Each structure stands twice: as C-alpha cells, then as structure tokens.
Amino acid sequence: SESGRRLEYIEFPSRQVVSAPAPIWADLVEPGSSGSFVSTRDRSGELVVLDSLNGAWRTLVIPDSLSAANFATSPDGRWLAIVAAVKKSSESAAVYRAGVGGRRLLVGTVPFSGGALRVLATFATGEPEIGLSWADDRTLALTRWPDAEETPSLWHLMIPDGELTRVATIPAACTPVSVGLGDSGRMATCRVDDFRSDIWLMMVPGLTR
User: Fold this and answer.
1) Cβ atoms < 10 Å from Cβ of 156
2) What is the pTM of this model?
3) Greater pLDDT, 31 or 189
4) DSSP characters for 115-175?
5) pLDDT of 81 higher than 90
C-alpha cells in the first residue's frame, strides 16, 4: 500500500540492503549529505529531508506557491537545487508535475539545513519538465525542450548570477526527464521519456565535476 513504502538502499561493496523505518510517499528519493535523503511528501510537491536512517522526515520549507518536481544535492552537500512549478490558485495539489496545466517553471537553490529559496531562472509557461544535476559547486546542468526548438538540449546555469548557456543538443525529439554527469566530468547522461526510454551519452566540454 502507499502507506507501507519504505526507503531501502544497497551499500557497496558489501551489497548489504539497508532500510529506514520512516515511510516514504514519492518515487523520487535523492541522496543528500552525510547519509541523509531528500524526497517529496505525497503529491503536494512539499520537500522533506531524512537526516538519518533512524530519524523522521523534516520539511524543507519553500514558498507555498511552488510545487517541487525535481531536485539534486550539491557536491559539497550544502545546497539543494530544485525545479519547481508555480501553482495556479485554482489548481489541485494533486496535479503537481512541472509543465502540467501550463504552469511556469523555475530553478532555484535552498540551503540543505533550511533557509530562503534563491531563484536563479524562470522558464516559459508550458515547457516540459526540466532534468537537473550539478556540474560543480557553481554550475547546474539542465535538460530542457523550449517550445520553439525541434529537439531538447543540455544547458549550464551559473550560480549565483543565473547565466544560462546551451552546451549540447539531443538529436531526437523526446522528453528529457533527468541528467547525470560522469566522474570524469566530460560525459552527460540524459534519460528521456519516449516509446523506447532512451539514454543519451554526450561528451560535453567545460564540465569540471
């Protein structure tokens, strides 16, 4: 049942399965700093943090007008980058995913320990969900599909000035749902949502992670 979900992860190299007693509500769980985890509470888009496996979820406060759809922890563990949708006052909280209902998307950062949200960029109403990762402590990697373009693309978003730069184009029409960066700092992996659920590997100049 929904209330019976538990967080489990596999430790390497022992391959031991470790469980947390606290329940989870969403499919997306992101490792945080020092053994913590980040997730969302049901479908409201409310961010929650589990500081230890034996602890309880705490709310990471963002404005009530926003619904978090994607998030990623910074390499130093101090910040959480989020993609959020601006809620319409008439929308049900159950309709929460970015891009649904033509809501405006934004990308920002919030301290992992709690604090004010810093908005870095806003995007056109109706743009599909944005994939998100960290290239380094001052750069975010985003996957986007702007309305005027035939295929999606990979972008850099600088912190704190919000400068946005295209770095690669995905050569197929698909919906990018996540992006990850290799340890070498030269390759980006983009998982897309289409009939085949493709994964694109791209060599990207300028990554330093």
Assistant:
1) 19
2) 0.75
3) 31
4) ---EEEEEE-TTPPPPEEEEEETTEEEEEE--TT-SS-EEEEEETTT--EEEEEE-SS--E
5) yes
Question: What would the two tokens of residue 102 be?
Answer: 């033509």
Output the CA angle 124-107-160, nearest 5 degrees: 120
- Residue entry with tokens 């809501």: 103
Residue with tokens 């295929």: 151
**Cβ(123)–Cβ(98) below 8 Å:** no
According to DSSP, the residues that pair with 169 across neighbouring strands are 153
Q: How far apart are CA 128 and CA 11, in angstroms?
A: 34
Residue 96 CA, chain-centre distance (Å), reads 14
Residue 186 CB coordination number (10 Å): 15
Q: What is the pLDDT of residues 15-69, one digit of tens each?
A: 888 877 777 776 678 777 777 888 887 666 788 888 887 888 888 888 888 888 8
Share of the chain above pLDDT 90, in %: 12
Q: What is the maximum alpha-carbon separation in the chain? A: 50
The CB density around residue 118, as the number of other CB atoms within 10 Å, is 14
Per-residue model confidence as pLDDT tens digits over 90-104: 344 433 343 444 568
Amino acid identity at 78: R
